Amino acid sequence: MPEATATFEVRRHGPAGIVNIGGDVTAGSEAVLMTAYEEAGDARAIILNFSGLAYMNSGGIGLLVTLLVRANRHSQALLAFGLSDHYRQIFELTRLDEAIGIHDTEAEALAAAGAA
Amino acid sequence: MSDMEQQAAARDATNWAKKVSTLNVSEVPEGAVNINVEGKRLASPLQGFGKMWQKTYQVRLPAERVAPGELIATWKQRFPEFWPEGNMFYGPLTGIEPGEVALLNMTLPGRMKLSTGVMVLYADEESFTLMTPEGHMFAGWITFSATCVDGETVAQAQVLMRASDPIFEMGLTMGGHKQEDRFWAHTLSSVAAHFGHEDAEVDTQVVCVDKRRQWSRWRNVWQSSAIRSTLYMLGAPLRGVKRLVA
Q1: Does the beta-carbon distance from A73 to B210 stay under 8 Å?
Q2: What range defines the domain where residue B174 resides?
Q3: A58 interfacial to chain B (CB closer than 8 Å)
Q4: Which residue of A lies nearest to B51 if distances are taken between CA atoms?
Q5: Would B209 disulfide with which of B37, B52, B161, B175, CB 3.0-4.6 Å?
Q6: Is the confidence at residue A2, as pLDDT, over 70?
Q7: What pTM did the predictor assign?
Q8: CB count in 10 Å sphere of residue B157
Q9: Is A74 within a domain?
Q10: How high is the ipTM of this complex?
Q11: pLDDT in tens, B88-137
């Protein structure tokens, strides 16, 4: 399995769990991402902060799909902010934007999650 | 911008396909049929109908025989040659490059022919990903990769998919999954054989990521490449007569 170089730091903001993503997200990041998801616990919404993302390959996009399935299973909304123009386009190309709410700022994402 | 940020931006631009709203086939090679690709949108597993599956097929080769980069370069270059007989991959002349669209003629059970295609979503030195258009058998993508693990080069094909519509879901349940497993096992065996490892064993792992079917997506059946391919085949005599008259 490829080495994981991504970091996922979790913090709670009311009913939302915010995951700060850093580094390179690849298929090798699965274990650390899922640990972060578990840390977010019973949050009503999971908000992914991509401001610190250096790079993501197609394996990373696949991970987001499986994360979304897990969140849906637990009736949790999945939102994102801090995406660069490039990754916003990748979300549109892969049609992840139809299921993951994309916002410009943390405040907007929190408001959309009802956690402002 | 720091050096690392510049490198990441360069990788972004080089490795990912540019955003498109619908697919465009620049050239239709002889023998290929472009009835289920042109003008179609891409479909991720989120837009599919059936259960979501992650299927991983792996074969291990001695690292001294081939390095991951060399394996992927060869796989990209000779991609169609590793497929089972009766299935055609009409890749673009430029090869497997991000954003390129390839047409496929597949053989399904009952000798049924299916015309469809894929777009190269992502490609780097150690992996590449093909994504399917709406109407394909499944909605999702396949990532081909090679990594070095414990002194071995592990070649892998990983599919993340949902059947596109209820008919394909039924087909997958009634033997389609097994056929797909055989397809990719054959492909990986052929890759291993190409590097002189004829008897390499293919390891298959299947995980049901989501047991739920997305019933709201049943209308995907109107885009079905199987139905459209069948109608196209049935219309062949008529097209022949038209050509004679013209």
Answers
A1: yes
A2: 37-214
A3: yes
A4: A69
A5: B52
A6: no
A7: 0.92
A8: 23
A9: yes
A10: 0.91
A11: 999 887 789 999 999 999 887 777 788 999 999 999 999 999 999 999 99
